[in-house]
Amino acid sequence: MKTKIREITGKAQDVLSRYPMVLLMGLLSSVGAIRVLDSKYDRESLFIHSKFTICCCLGISLMFALKILSQRIGKRLLLEILGTAFLIGFFFVLPTKERDFTEVHGFIIAITLLLSHLLVSFAAFLEKNKELNFWQYNKNLFVNIFLTAVFTGVLTGGVELAILAVDKLFDFNFSDHLYADTFYVLAIFGSSFIFLLFNETGLSYLEKDSTYPVILKFFTQFVLIPLLFIYLVILYVYSFKIVINWELPRGWVSYLVLAYSIIGILALLLVYPLKEEKAKSWVKVFSKLFYYTIIPLLVLLFTAIFTRILEYGYTEPRYFVLLLALWLLSVVSYFVLNKKSSIKFIPISLFAFGAFSLVFPYLNAFSVAKRSQKNQLITLLDRNKILVNNKIDFQKKISDTLVDEIANKFEFLAERKEKEFLLNLVDTKKQKIIADDFERPYYGLISSNLREAFTNVNKTSKTTGFERFVLEAESKIVDIRGYQYLINFNSYNQESKDINGDTFQIDNQTEVNNMRTIKVILNSKEAVDFSSAMDKLFENNAGKNKTVQLKEISMESDLGKYHIKIIFPDISRDKAPRENQKNIFYDNAALLIKEK
Length: 596
Fold this sequence. Notes:
single chain; alpha+beta; four-stranded mixed sheet; 61% helix
């Protein structure tokens, strides 16, 4: 028993000394995830902790890639310093405020995470030869990731059940946070540690020759490859159908072609050592013919992609689909034309295309999407004769579908900080409204305001876009006489404040009946829900103008030993009839508190 304990302890110490930066990133990711959970009522802290956690999770794969590279070329300290500098820089590339975080940053995070994992696959194999070593290394990584998932799942589930058993049997009444904290530590830091245990000494262990896993061989030969043949037949039949009917391919077919191609490439990589075995002749046939089967599908793929792009212009998703198609074309060309092809080309070329999409000037995904949608918007306005002296004529009679299309492009460009371009398209009066909306947390307000600005809309569909209803207080000054405390809050940031030992929490994120609640909670026990009062306020003023001025917009109630009152300078409701969704927006609301 002592020998086993010493052996386990020795392996743990070896992992700690061999991979300190990887484990540090795993530990910081777990801590960050826990802090995200603890900060759920403080949106500013929540966003900062989320950024920190994302960067540390990125650091796990990045530091592992750099560690493997250092085992090949040395310079461990320099590589770790460069990796740390990159992570710090990436943290500051992301916006400082939640309202500035858009889907653009989501794409940046997703592509960067993909690049860090691709770097793991080839960083130590940039020199020529070592083809079989490269395959063995990635195969062992693949197996270790699978084993890590199994071990981590069992360990996490077992520990969580043990805590639950102790809690229920001995009446400890553990906090719910304990279960979440345990999950984050084991799922992130624990999985990192287990994965590194499986990798043992690292590069020298991972690239050594080993027996081809029987399960992997069976899965690839008798499950994956036959399924790909079936999939190929379906795609070819569909291709013949559109040729016979002489129709354009449906947009989603591009995803199916990409899925077939990428899964097929993965299957080729998995059976790479088997293609030389005579007994596996059909694997050899598949390896030789696969890239030729993609060639007709590439025609279908590019036709589907450019059909959408020529009609609607580039967006980031369409750009990435096109980029994947170009990458696939490069892979097919390389393996068809090159007699001495290397499987290393696949991850290296994908890494190069991904890096190009993020950082290449003028031609990166975000620059292309913005230029394209600007041109699309101007073309749309010109074609429908909506521009008068380079300004939008909001009195021109147009259809509601056209209004929606213009509004959607405004929102798209607003999210990408094209404020000056958009303001130049509207007159001075509308500029102030839209300029104010740029300071609000939801860019949907810009498209909503634009829809409302068109006064002569021909309704062609049963349901239109959002219907916006605004209530404004005549005075923007908050009268605090008779109250002792004031808490400012808004619709996109939950607040939690301590007053005289009591905690006041404002919950405005929970949805009930398709509308966000506005609930004030005292010490997590007593609560007052103002949602029905707010809904009644809107209903009492329904049928009037879309913007209604009231003497005061306020609601009040008793809460425990306190009396509370909420005052709004203005409040708006966007209603989508199709989903019966009601979105409430407000800024600079005030919660007044006094003891009874």
